Amino acid sequence: MIYKLHTPIQGKDIAKLHIGDIVLISGTIYTARDAAHKRLVELIKSNQELPLELKDAIIYYVGPTPAKPNQAIGSAGPTSSYRMDPYVKDIMEKGSIISIGKGPRANYVKDLIKEHKGLYLSTIGGAAAAIGKTVIKRELIAYPDLGAEAIQKLEVKDFYAIVTYDSYGEDLFTKGIEDFRKKQN
Amino acid sequence: MRELNLNDVTKAVKSLAIDACYNLNDDVLNCIKCYKDKETSELGKSVLEKIIENDELAKRDSLPMCQDTGVAVVFVEIGNQVIFNGNIEDAINQGIREAYTEGYLRKSVVSHPFNRINTIDNTPAIIHYKITEGESVKITVAPKGGGSENVSLVKMLIPADGIEGVKKLVLDTVFNAGGKPCPPIIIGLGIGGNLEKSALLAKEALMRDIDDENKDPILNKLEKELLSEVNKLGIGPMGFGGNTTALAVKINSYPCHIASLPVAINIQCHASRHKSIIL
């Protein structure tokens, strides 16, 4: 199924989504990857103010290429999500329950997503030029010293993503291989 | 002797790096198209379609196909009749610096594994030199992303492990990597040599054309068998299931110690970027 969704994505919409569904997101998402996550979690652990409101924030694991003069953003495909696994518990507890990246994650992340009734979405790794075209606006929020790893606020239109872990604890990677094996037999 | 102007080296490196990041080689693009037609999973097929669309868009609009424009790996084959008017390493790094700043490529290099401060210009490149005969210089620039490099490894097997041991190691490694390295992948294997030689062989294997046939009959057979077995793992495009996990397996080998069977596995994502020039 294909769903068009606007941010913030409501609980009732999350409940409709199952692994393998396609979502086209319009609205606001935030970029953060390794170095930004490390800083955010250090702030959370020491009870300091965060540079963005994490409640209902969708986090996209991406470090884009620099924008050319006529672009909102450069190429902007996902980075491997498992590297953010050690930080995800603290981030989710602050209310950011939807993340976007690529590739399999630790089992405890699957459990956390089920517990918080959140989602893990994937975009297509290496399809970065096409993904960049669905970003209409970009605003620097924090950590310019991190370069491509800075936190940026993105306005997106019909941003394509695949439901990879759903709020019921299902996992598209496991199901994908199971389906393949059934076909072989 | 021929004196080569290092400005020409800088210009060549710059143009190769940008070209590699914007324009996927036709052998790889055609191979992805071929596998798309054979993909049995509907989602897998649509992922391959999106990858093809992206790579064609990147070419058309001169954009990096992937935001991870990598660490620049540079292979230089220098003829023994060539002299330079200065430091070739500086000239190569200057080419990388110009490519990554002027070509709108991402700077992904940190100056120290622990302080992790970005060098801001994607230098230093990782450079491999070889001395050849003659008066020419061949330069290959291969930007390599972190996602696929992170699931690569070197393992020192023992002679008793043999071909079956190598196969098991490759299948286990690819299965454990799953969707992490952005499948469909290309698997570069370096077999033989020693610890560091095997790793270099694996990287060099990834520089071969995707349809290049291995001239060694044992390795040729092993490449084909491994490709077929990897594609039976079911990982599929981006790990969502399917029969397109790898586009190719490429093996380079070298003599080794009587006690050793070194095996390096260098995983390459579908954005297999490398461009060469002969000066």
Describe it for me?
The complex is a heterodimer of chains A (185) and B (279). Chain A is α/β, with parallel strands linked by helices and 185 residues long. Chain A is 29% helix and 26% strand. Chain A has one domain (2-184): Alpha-Beta Barrel (fumarase). Chain A has helices at 11-16, 34-45, 85-93, 107-115, 128-132, 172-184, and strands at 2-6, 22-31, 58-60, 98-101, 119-122, 135-142, 151-165. The mean pLDDT of chain A is 96. Chain B is an alpha/beta fold and 279 residues long. Chain B contains eight helices and ten strands. In chain B, the strands form three sheets. In chain B, strands 4-2-5-10 form a four-stranded mixed β-sheet. Chain B has a four-stranded mixed β-sheet with strand order 6-9-7-8. Chain B has a two-stranded parallel sheet with strand order 1-3. The radius of gyration of chain B is 19 Å and the shape is globular. The two termini of chain B are 14 Å apart. Classes of the chains: A alpha/beta (185), B alpha/beta (279). At the A-B interface, helix 5 and helix 6 of A face helix 3 of B.
For the biggest β-sheet of chain A, the strand order reads: 2-3-4-5-7
The profile of the biggest β sheet of chain B is: 4 strands, mixed
For this structure, the CATH topology of chain A is fumarase
> Termini of chain B, distance in Å?
14 Å
Overall 3D shape of chain A: globular
N-to-C CA distance of chain A: 27 Å
> Total domains of chain A, how many?
1
Structure class of chain A: alpha/beta
**Basic shape of chain B:** globular
Number of strands of chain B: 10
In DSSP terms, counting alpha (H) and pi (I) runs of 4 or more, how many helices of chain B? 8
Determine and state the CATH class of chain A.
Alpha Beta
- The succession of helices and strands of chain B, N to C, reads EHHHEEHEEHEHEHHEEE
Radius of gyration of chain A, taken over Cα atoms and rounded to an integer in Å? 16 Å
Number of strands of chain A: 7
The portion of residues forming beta strands of chain B comes to: 15-25%
Structural class by secondary-structure content of chain B: alpha/beta
Largest sheet of chain A: 5 strands, mixed, barrel
Q: Based on the coordinates given, report the CATH architecture of chain A.
A: Alpha-Beta Barrel
* pLDDT < 50 runs, ≥5 residues of chain B: none
